[in-house]
């Protein structure tokens, strides 16, 4: 039952993204301004809905959470006390009481593939051109502990990259945004395998994503399908499934 709920959560998120893309003809960035590339120069900065936020915030109107979207002003992290159930995995052992983390803000158990969404204000990825390997061959979202080491992941986080729920970057992407800087984020390697044996905040590696059961990690693919990837997957096959434009064929172990 819990695994089915997580599968449904991811499916709804990916399908919501496609509806969002139909509206704007591009995907939001991992975090930043959207749909404007420069809301600070157009007077949009302080009103509601927020013009700067997380990918998950901009997804809200397309997963039946438009009221939360419309009532959040300035930046998405101002959405204190707001829990979005679709962003929490029932098997996540690190979810806090009430599903609220740092600053009374909604926790999240899923991470976005930053290789797909990138960090450019206004969004830069289009479907299908921005995912040339094909949406059915590219991971969009994956399960990730809501708290990992010193990091607490918030669905509305948009100003502190270490608390933003994403995985997979390369060194070239680090220069695309004003806030993703420094050597820490080079650790989010695009081909880093999931962590299969994490059971708590203390033994969790924040630089990757986590499996929440012995059965494997649940991932949402770009076409809306959901897969369970087990610990037998090779680093090569996992990396090919994460990278949206490597032109490689994913192995049968994925």
**End-to-end CA span:** 23 Å
Give the DSSP E fraction (strand runs of 2 or more residues). Answer: 5-15%
Q: What are the secondary-structure elements, in order, as H or E? A: HEEHHEEEHEEEEEEH
Count of strand segments: 11
Give the mean pLDDT. 89
Biggest sheet, in brief?
A: 5 strands, mixed
Helix content: 10-25%
Number of domains: 1
Task: Give the strand line-up of the largest sheet.
Answer: 9-5-6-10-11
As residue ranges, the low-confidence spans are: 174-184
Shape annotation? globular
**C-alpha Rg (nearest Å):** 17 Å
Annotation field: number of helices: 5
Compact overview of the structure:
This protein is α+β, with helices and mostly antiparallel strands and 254 residues long. It has helices spanning 2-24, 55-59, 66-70, 114-117, 235-242, and strands at 31-33, 52-54, 100-101, 105-106, 110-113, 139-143, 147-148, 151-152, 166-167, 217-221, 226-229.
């Amino acid at each position: 039952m819990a695994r089915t709920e997580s599968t449904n959560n991811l499916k709804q998120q990916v399908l919501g993204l496609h509806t969002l893309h139909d509206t704007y003809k591009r995907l939001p960035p991992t975090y930043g301004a959207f749909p404007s590339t420069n809301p600070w120069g157009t007077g949009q900065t302080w009103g509601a809905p927020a013009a700067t936020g997380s990918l998950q915030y901009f997804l809200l109107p397309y997963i039946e959470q438009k009221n939360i979207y419309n009532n959040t002003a300035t930046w998405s992290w101002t959405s204190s006390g707001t829990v979005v159930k679709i962003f929490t995995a029932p098997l996540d052992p690190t979810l806090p009481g009430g599903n609220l983390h740092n600053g009374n803000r909604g926790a999240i158990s899923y991470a976005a593939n930053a290789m797909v969404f990138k960090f450019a204000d206004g969004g830069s990825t289009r479907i299908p051109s921005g995912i040339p390997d094909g949406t059915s061959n590219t991971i969009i979202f994956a399960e990730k502990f809501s708290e990992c080491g010193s990091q607490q992941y918030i669905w509305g986080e948009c100003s502190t990259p270490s608390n933003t729920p994403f995985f997979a970057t390369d060194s070239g992407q680090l220069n695309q945004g004003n806030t993703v800087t420094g050597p820490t984020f080079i650790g989010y390697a695009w081909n880093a395998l999931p962590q299969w044996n994490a059971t708590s905040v203390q033994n969790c590696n924040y630089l990757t994503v986590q499996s929440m059961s012995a059965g494997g990690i649940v991932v949402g693919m770009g076409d809306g399908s959901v897969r369970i990837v087990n610990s037998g997957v090779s680093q090569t096959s996992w990396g090919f499934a994460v990278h949206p434009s490597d032109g490689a064929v994913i192995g049968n172990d994925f």
